[in-house]
Design goal:
Blueprint (H helix, E strand, L loop, with lengths): L5 H21 L8 H9 L2 E5 L2 E2 H12 L2 E3 L2 H4 L3 E2 L2 E5 L1 H9 L4 E5 L5 E5 L19 E2 L17 E2 L7 E2 L7 E5 H6 L5 H4 L6 E3 L11 E3 L2 E2 L5 E2 L2 E2 L13 E8 L3 H4 L6 E7 L7 E9 L3 E11 L6 E13 L6 E16 L2 E14 L35 E15 L4 E24 L5 E26 L4 E29 L10 E26 L3 E18 L4 E18 L5 E12 L14 E12 L6 E18 L7 E21 L2 E16 L15 E10 L8 E10 L2 E2 L7 E2 L2 E12 L2 E8 L7 E5 L4 E4 L4 E9 L1
């Protein structure tokens, strides 16, 4: 930790988790405008500077800035544009300008609020405009799409947790959604970075800054099980989804195998692609920042022609930059075209494609002695590169191509069918230098070299039938499905030797001697799953969810070096059950139970095939959506057990037995939305009591590695309301990551750290300018350690970036 901010940071670290928890619990106070202020807002003239764009976003900005209650059915604003609002207007004239040419009108209700309605045939678009006597600030999002786009920071619906369009407050499970506005406002350049404010998630704080989607949920690593548009991606952790091409990022917490098959028990992350809209829009991004970080982006959306059933969209991004660590750089090219055919309101077919080429030199790890622990030679510079620039000049290169479609048709009587499919082809070419033991002089580090090549081809398809039926007091949403996931991969690894390096006076240029293959495996996997789930709603108050699924998994793995074929052929049934109550005051208490599984390849000493790892969780929670507020709160308490964990067979060296077990008990608090006019908030707090409950290696009762005891975060953005500051906004945030352990014996502790972020924004006409500073105080810290302290990863230094977005 740097000396210039250490005293304040140490003081704040001891208190931040409690402060954030208190903020989440106490920020639900509604802002109520007095009659005088409301009348002034309607009849008085205000200064507005809202750029042209999608109608839903323009209305959201106007409602927030003017202080009106506006109820919006999202289906009315879909694919509509607005000219925006610039100049001096009262509320009535402001609505008229924003809605001009849209065929919609703002109609005042008896309670003084506004509702958005179609203009009656033959009437003027300005009909129904009136003044507002007394209002509460609100821009509602209750009828939004389950895949976005969303209003502001708060999403209200999702399809991922249930595979049906379900409000979040009616889902008996902890769910977090990071909206497009959150990604943009925090200038998140990776998916991991986008998830830093999500309760129960540790992201981008381990394995260093390797440009991948590194995610831990409830203490379990989920990095190799990310979904895109509800379909699993199989990339062995090498792929990093580009946030520029995403509409939202969803986190489902706890076991989720009942709908998606093999998954670790912590949960899942689903990234949702930007999709074509039936209104023309364009956006250009230009960004530049610390270490010559450059980003150029294009988001182009067009309807094929007026009244056409076709719309297309093209997302393109080129990024490159260096790093605080010597010789480290990265670059990425991303292209994602998409096409939607919507011949009727009942039928939709969207084709999605993606091509991504990423390349980087991976930041290396340093020993604990000299970073976390004393070193007789002093502190090792955290920017030290332990590799060889000539050998790692090509670094890691990842190329992936994806193509697929999302199809939906709605029949009569509440019946609908969906089929989602994606094929992907990926290749990794990697040259990496790994740290070895630190020699007795505490300055000479042993090293080894690895060349790793991998090719992966995968196909995933999910067929879903949904039937909504029932009248009166009991209603059902029945989901049945059959899915398939298959992959074929080839992996080759070569090892090499290289001379040690002096960490305090490095001399680069040592030759690397590749000694031969260390790993060569060809693997084919197939998973077939069938599932059934019933969501029932009784008296519009009680919600129950019951689901059951069975999977058959076969994995053929051929080790070319050992000339050995290992076959894993297993089946597993998983399920879920949940109960939730919708109270009139916005509270939704719930109780849920769920299980999960992950197949394990191989066999024990006796030749018995390994059983799948299993997960089992009980969760109790409370969701709260204050009436008339664009704000939501979630609290969850869970008990999660992972069993059949492989551990070393002490009686038969070189073999494993499945006697391990972990138990994670935790608390999560989260708040997101708009707390007052123009003030958006995202806050979270997590506590994880993780323990190894069964083991044959003497570490029972210890904490698993890389699982912080506490995490908390707070981010807010304030859009200034007074006329002289029209167009200006600012944001600020703080992130706290608690201590964790580096080794199974819990002998080495990675200290907690806390980082501050800030941002300044300005909108003028169609331009949005933003200045971001991350790790504002330039803290120097270690984010995580592995291998008893031989590999410790430095955290990010301070970065400052300037971006400009042009919408047209």
């Amino acid at each position: 930790m740097s000396t210039h901010s250490g005293c304040f940071a140490r003081f704040a670290q001891r208190r931040l988790p409690l402060l954030v928890a208190a903020a989440i619990a106490g920020s639900g106070t509604a802002f109520i405008a007095t009659p005088a202020l409301a009348q002034s807002a309607v009849n008085g003239v205000q200064s507005f500077n809202i750029p042209a764009g999608q109608l839903d976003r323009v209305l959201n900005d106007f409602a927030s800035a003017s202080g009106v209650v506006l109820s919006v059915d999202a289906s009315l604003t879909t694919n509509k544009q607005s000219p925006g609002l610039k100049g001096q207007f009262n509320v009535v004239n402001g609505f008229q300008q924003i809605l001009s040419g849209s065929g919609l009108q703002a109609v005042q209700q008896s309670n003084g609020s506004y509702s958005l309605l179609p203009v009656p045939s033959g009437a003027s678009a300005n009909a129904g405009a009136a003044v507002l006597p007394s209002v509460r600030v609100q821009a509602t999002n209750d009828s939004a799409s389950p895949v976005g786009p969303d209003f502001g920071y708060r999403a209200t619906r999702s399809r991922t947790a249930t595979k049906s369009d379900t409000p979040l407050n009616e889902t008996p499970q902890a769910i977090s959604v990071v909206t497009r506005d959150q990604i943009t406002d925090r200038d998140s350049v990776t998916v991991s970075e986008s998830l830093r404010n999500v309760a129960g998630v540790t992201a981008n704080e381990f394995f260093g800054r390797r440009g991948r989607d590194d995610v831990i949920i409830r203490g379990f690593t989920q990095s190799n099980f990310l979904l895109r548009d509800g379909l699993r991606q199989y990339t062995l952790q090498f792929f990093g989804n580009e946030p520029w091409g995403l509409e939202r990022i969803e986190v489902i917490k706890g076991p989720s195998s009942v709908l998606y098959g093999q998954l670790p028990p912590g949960g899942l992350v689903n990234v949702v692609s930007k999709r074509p809209q039936f209104t023309d829009s364009s956006e250009v991004l230009l960004g530049y920042g610390s270490y010559d970080a450059l980003r150029l982006g294009l988001d182009l959306n067009r309807r094929a022609s007026e009244n056409s059933d076709f719309a297309w969209r093209l997302n393109v991004l080129r990024s490159e930059g260096e790093d605080a660590i010597d010789f480290v750089d990265r670059e990425r090219t991303y292209v994602a075209p998409s096409l939607t055919w919507q011949p009727s309101a009942a039928t939709s077919l969207t084709f999605l494609a993606l091509a991504q080429d990423s390349k980087q030199v991976r930041p290396g790890a340093l020993p604990a002695v000299g970073t976390l622990l004393p070193n007789v030679n002093g502190q090792i510079p955290l920017e030290r590169f332990i590799g060889e620039p000539d050998f790692e000049g090509d670094g890691e290169r990842f190329r992936e191509f994806q193509i697929g479609y999302l199809f939906e048709h709605k029949f009569k009587e509440g019946l609908s069918f969906r089929q989602n499919l994606r094929h992907s082809d990926a290749r990794v070419d990697s040259k990496i230098m790994f740290p070895g033991a630190l020699q007795a002089d505490q300055r000479t580090l042993n090293r080894s070299a690895t060349i790793f090549d991998q090719e992966v081809r995968s196909l995933v398809v999910d067929n879903q039938v949904e039937w909504k039926f029932g009248e009166g007091r009991l209603k059902h949403t029945l989901i049945g499905g059959l899915d398939y996931f298959g992959y074929d991969q080839d992996q080759i690894s070569l090892g090499g030797t290289v001379a040690p390096i002096d960490l305090f006076n490095p001399v680069y240029g040592s030759p690397v001697n590749i000694t031969g293959q260390t790993f060569s495996v060809q693997e084919t996997g197939k998973q077939f799953g069938v599932y059934l789930q019933d969501q029932m709603k009784f008296d519009d108050k009680w919600v129950t969810v019951f689901g059951l699924r069975h999977d058959e998994v076969k994995i053929d793995s051929f080790n070319r070096l050992a000339n050995r074929l290992t076959v894993t052929d297993t089946g597993k049934t998983t399920g879920r059950a949940g109960l939730l109550y919708l109270a009139d005051n916005g509270l939704s208490p719930y109780l849920s139970y769920a299980t999960s599984f992950v197949p394990v390849s191989g066999a024990d000493f006796s030749g018995n095939p390994f059983k799948p790892e299993e997960g089992e969780q009980v969760e109790v929670g409370l969701k709260y959506e204050p009436t008339g507020k664009n704000l939501s709160f979630t609290a969850a308490v869970y008990d999660l057990v992972r069993s059949n964990v492989s551990t070393t067979d002490l009686l038969n060296p070189g073999f494993s037995i499945q006697v391990g077990e972990q138990q994670h008990k935790g608390i999560e608090l989260e708040a997101v939305g708009e707390i007052t006019r123009g003030m958006s908030l995202s806050a979270s707090y997590s506590y994880i009591d993780a323990e190894v409950t069964r083991s044959n290696t003497g570490n029972e009762g210890n904490k698993p590695t890389v699982v912080p005891l506490q995490n908390s975060s707070l981010w807010f953005k304030h859009d200034l309301q007074n006329a002289e500051w029209a167009g200006w906004s600012y944001g600020a945030g703080v992130r706290y990551v608690g201590r964790s352990f580096a080794d199974a014996a819990n002998t080495l502790t990675v200290p907690s750290f806390m980082l501050f972020d800030a941002a300044l924004y300005y909108r003028i006409e169609n331009w949005r300018l933003a200045l971001h500073a991350k790790n504002l105080t330039d803290e120097r810290y270690i984010s995580s350690c592995f291998s008893t302290g031989s590999a410790c990863y430095p955290g990010e230094y301070r970065t400052v970036s300037l971006s400009a977005n042009l919408a047209f």
